[in-house]
Specification:
globular, alpha/beta, five-stranded parallel sheet, about 650 residues, 4 domains
Length: about 650
């Protein structure tokens, strides 16, 4: 929190850079990413019951969201209290926008989101990609996709604020909802005798509190607040918070220093509230119809300050560095005015009609593919496995829950080796190639980069491993062995980088580039499907080869004919041009695809066997074993499962 107060924007201060704060935060981010992944597949730390996530709900700054979902093959849903999706309606809360008279505000607002995403990826992209490789066994996210990956993949979002204060922008798509604040029920609370006496002794006080914000000069802040209150003739209720405001000062008839107290109870008993502008505190003040003064420090706090001011429920936000007696006096007087109280009352009445939590649950349920997440034999249970078996009408596939699998294993209807971990959602993060020249060049540069990193690791990693082993107390011989292993891994990584670049990345980049060239002159190439493994790689290669040569050869005749029919002589000329280009590029894509797609499929199959599938399979298998032990080898509903299973494959 101290770091955020010292660095309220995206760019860290020189003090933080010199103090090593950035390096520490990057290490913290590595730990956080690792922890997010383990939370998706690790057993419950208290009960030790196995767990594997069927879906993920996360906020944007967790950063692990889409990557964990991609590794597991499950849906992900983003929920947050501040806007993280590009819009022309308002700027990104973390972007310090300086208005330019030459640019429309709507354009500036839209660009601010790209700037925040780009700068965030610039600082954390290497950390995220390293974690994807190490923990998730996933390929790096390309720089062209990384900054805006959730937008690119159209990940569903639910924003947890009231439409009464910030309505859904018109340029947000159907995958984005605004549901209302998440308000909890008022907790049971019994005030202390001295607090109860203070509240009863006079008119409702003005609340002042900054929660977990660590203020640099708390004594100065308290002095400003006390003087402003004296000038306005109001009583004060000051929450000490993490900054321990008013430490050492006694309570008086007009000022009470407060410890922990639920806002839901307290805000019903004050006349106005002064706080830092956190979304939850802001919502609590508004729904209780309390005029609000926001003194923002960082993050989304200025955004909420502007929202409150635009609603008329409070003055313009006062940045903490600009707070003085004069500005606070003016703000308090505004909050005590009939206009402010009338405005905040209108906002509160609308908010009280909303059901933020229920609406968010509905939004989440709309976004997940329930039709492929449920067990085919026990539809009230989530599926975890897939099973294929020949039938009279060909191979059939079933999605099975752990309980259904337990029944079938118990009846010897299938074996564990017949099962595959179910993936209910796939995310395509492959690099998009638009032409063979830039595609091939970027692939070559990527290979050079991978080789260079591997080469550097060959020299650096042995020393790291040796040092780590010695610190752990191992003898010199064992430490030297660890260093030698690191050298071997370095050479293996270099060999792998060259092999992947020459056999997979470069041919694939050229094939995809040639395949997409027709888009540049208005033609639409055929979709050849996605390569998932060596089988689908062969299918895509064969399909691309056949359609590539067919479309290239026939296009010489069909394109001029269609052009002449639609546009006369000019259309004929265009058709001759597109047909000639297609004759060159489409068969070229077909030829390169014969090598590229099978190689890509083999590479993905090997990666899946060695990496991601192992971690997910282990976690799901543990969950299955636990379910079997729970039922002591006699799963519930076995007769029903067996009956439906036999009937399904008898057809």
């Amino acid at each position: 929190m101290k770091y955020m107060v010292r660095n309220p924007g995206l760019i860290p201060s020189m003090e933080s850079l010199k103090g090593g704060d950035v390096g520490r935060k990057r290490r913290m981010m590595r730990e956080m990413l690792h922890g997010c992944w383990r939370s998706c597949i690790d057993p419950d730390p208290i009960s030790n019951q196995p767990f594997v996530a069927d879906a993920i709900i996360a906020n944007p700054p967790s950063f692990a969201h889409i990557h964990c979902a991609q590794a597991l093959g499950v849906p992900v849903h983003i929920m947050f209290t501040m806007p993280w999706t590009a819009t022309r309606a308002f700027p990104h809360p973390l972007a310090n926008i300086q208005r330019n008279k030459d640019l429309e505000p709507q354009v500036t607002n839209w660009l601010s989101y790209g700037v925040v995403d780009l700068m965030t990826w610039q600082g954390l992209g290497d950390v995220i990609n390293s974690w994807r490789h190490r923990d998730l066994a996933l390929a790096p996210v390309p720089a062209s996709m990384g900054p805006g990956i959730t937008t690119f993949l159209k990940i569903p979002h639910t924003y947890c604020w009231s439409p009464a204060v910030v309505s859904k922008p018109a340029d947000w798509g159907p995958e984005i909802d605004v549901c209302g604040f998440f308000m909890r029920d008022e907790p049971a609370y019994e005030p202390s005798a001295d607090l109860d006496a203070f509240l009863s002794a006079g008119p409702p006080p003005v609340y002042v509190g900054f929660g977990s914000i660590v203020v640099n000069h708390p004594a100065r802040l308290v002095g400003i607040v006390l003087e402003a209150a004296s000038i306005c003739g109001v009583r004060l209720l000051i929450s000490r918070g993490w900054s321990k405001l008013g430490e050492g000062r006694p309570n008086t008839n007009d000022v009470f220093y407060l410890g922990d107290c639920p806002h839901e109870w307290l805000f019903k008993r004050v006349s106005a509230v002064v706080h830092h502008g956190g979304a939850g505190t802001t919502a609590c003040g508004l729904i209780n119809a309390r005029p609000t003064i926001i003194v923002p420090f960082f993050g989304d706090q200025p955004f909420w300050g502007r929202v409150v001011a635009q609603a008329g429920a409070g003055p313009a936000p006062i940045p903490q560095k600009e707070l003085d007696v004069g500005t606070l006096v003016e703000a308090i007087r505004f909050c005590l005015s009939p206009a402010a109280n009338h405005a905040v009352q209108a906002v509160a009445e609308t908010m009280r009609q909303e059901q933020g939590v229920n609406t968010a649950v509905q939004s989440f349920h709309r976004s997940i593919p329930l039709d492929v997440m449920c067990c085919d034999l026990l539809p009230d249970q989530p599926a975890a496995w897939t099973f294929e078996k020949p039938s009279k009408t060909g191979r059939k596939r079933l999605r099975l829950s752990n309980q259904a699998v337990s029944c079938l294993l118990n009846a010897k209807k299938l074996k564990s080796a017949d099962l595959k971990a179910l993936r209910t959602k796939e995310y395509d993060t492959d690099v998009k190639r638009w032409d063979p020249i830039t595609g091939g060049a970027s692939s070559f540069l990527g290979t050079v980069t991978d080789f260079t990193f591997a080469l550097g690791g060959t020299f650096i990693d042995p020393w790291k491993e040796y040092k780590r082993a010695r610190v752990s107390g191992h003898e010199a011989g064992r430490a030297s062995g660890a260093a030698a292993m690191a050298v071997g891994k370095g050479f293996a990584s270099m060999t792998g980088a060259v092999a992947k670049g020459g056999l997979v990345s470069l041919p694939l980049a050229v094939a995809e580039g040639l395949h997409n060239v027709p888009r540049l002159y208005g033609d639409k190439p055929r979709e050849h499907g996605k390569v998932e493994d060596w089988k689908s790689g062969g299918v895509v290669a064969a399909k691309t080869f056949g359609t590539g040569f067919y479309d290239g050869l026939t296009g010489i005749f069909t394109d001029p004919y269609k052009g002449a029919k639609e546009g006369g002589a000019l259309g004929l000329a265009k058709g001759v041009g597109t047909g000639t280009l297609g004759f060159v590029f489409k068969p070229g894509a077909a030829l390169f695809g014969l090598v590229a797609y099978p190689a890509q499929g083999i590479h993905k199959s090997l990666k899946a066997r060695m990496g991601r599938s192992h971690a997910v399979w282990t976690a799901k298998s543990a969950l299955l074993d636990h379910d079997q032990r729970q039922h002591n080898g006699n799963p519930r509903g076995e007769s029903k499962v067996l009956q439906v299973f036999d009937a399904y494959f008898a057809q």
